[in-house]
Amino acid sequence: MKNRPMNQKTGMGRDVDFFPNAVTKVRPQVLGKAGYKASYFFFHAPCPHPPLPGRRIRLILLAFMFILMITPPAWAHKVYVFAWVEEGVVYTESSFGDQPVHGGAIEVLDKKEQVVLWGKTDDQGKFNFPVPSAVTSDLLIKLDATMGHQARWTLTQLELTADGEEAEQGLKKAMTKKAALEAKPSISAVATGIAVIFFICGIAAFINKKRKKHNG
Amino acid sequence: MHISEGVLSGPVMMAGAALAFAGTAVGLKKIDYDRMVHVAILSSAFFVASLIHVNLGPSSVHLILNGIVGLLLGWAAFPAILTALLLQAILFQYGGITALGVNTVIMALPAVICYYLVGPLTNRSPRYTFVAAFMAGAGSVGLAALGLGSALYFTEKNFLEVSILVMTANLPVMIIEGIVTGFCVTFLLKVYPEIFPKRGSGK
């Protein structure tokens, strides 16, 4: 059933079967002219008078958004090892973000890539060792959490040998870095990623449309 | 399933990058530009799926969803997964930029394999389709684990051990992903069959 006569210039208001199986009625009044043109371009680029997306695709998009909204954003899956010095002891913590690394292999290397010592993280992802007595360079702490998960952390010589106020300040700095590492992916990061994906796809569709026009 | 920065040797990274480049080129050629929005939706789904974690056993694994991406996109899975992985590396520090090529091949190649092996089986009775989609979902994760094992072979030299470790860690994911893919595909086939790539048209 037609609600209004078709506009010859824009093709608005006509009955179109966007999906062969779906009964889809073009209803420009739902999205407005700008929305109509945008969806027009995005969903069915090469068609000279593309119809509005059908109810189904809108439903699927809505369902997708809903799933996004209920997804807890608190699950990270980066790997990191973090180390700090406190009173002559080097403390390390290894984590997948939401979960400590059990039994991850820790290797401590000096500047010449020589292994100074090694060990395994405990159930809390922790591994501690006293500052090696003959420290002459920065220490590189390498974590191998199996399955291609690796991370590293550098302790500078200054951090290793500092004491008193200097050490306290170093510790403070280290803790800020730790907080940044532990930060979970935010909703805005997720939204940014999705926006970028849609943007890239839109550009691809646009370029293709231009090319098709150009080729006749 | 994401290989971190600095794990792989140079030649492996180069080989991965070359393969990913080739796959992406084929994908861009075969993409149906009229269905760009499907590519965007599936790429986003893949992007988000890695945030959903399954905390079982000693290690933490996440959904991958490469099976359904492959079933619905075919070769276009390569550019879709590449984009999603790049954004995951930048925004969430998953994996690494240098390992991007290898990670793309590990996840996109099983997707394309599933498209060819399981795709033709999905257009039958719902029960049959569910089983086929389950195979696609579980199989693509299993193949990805194998790929990960072989990529690590060159640095760790114990292919079997690593592959078995990855497989066992991802076993729950395989099962969950199989079920998720099964439900998604049967549901989509019922309400929106046009989303499946047309076969025989070269797309």
Number of strands of chain A: 7
Mean of pLDDT of chain A: 69
Shape of chain A: elongated
**Low-pLDDT segments of chain B:** none
List keywords for this structure.
heterodimer; A: 216 residues; alpha+beta; three-stranded antiparallel sheet; 7 strands; elongated; B: 203 residues; mainly alpha; two-stranded antiparallel sheet; 7 helices; 2 strands; 3% strand; globular
Structural topology:
The complex is a heterodimer of chains A (216) and B (203).
Chain A: H1 28-43, H2 55-70, E1 77-86, E2 89-97, E3 105-109, E4 115-120, E5 126-130, E6 139-144, E7 150-155, H3 157-161, H4 165-182, H5 187-214
Antiparallel strand pairs in A: 1-2, 2-5, 3-4, 3-6, 6-7
Chain B: H1 10-30, H2 36-49, E1 53-55, E2 60-62, H3 66-73, H4 77-92, H5 100-117, H6 126-156, H7 159-191
Antiparallel strand pairs in B: 1-2
Helix pairs in contact in B: 1-4, 1-5, 2-3, 2-4, 3-5, 3-6, 4-5, 5-6, 6-7
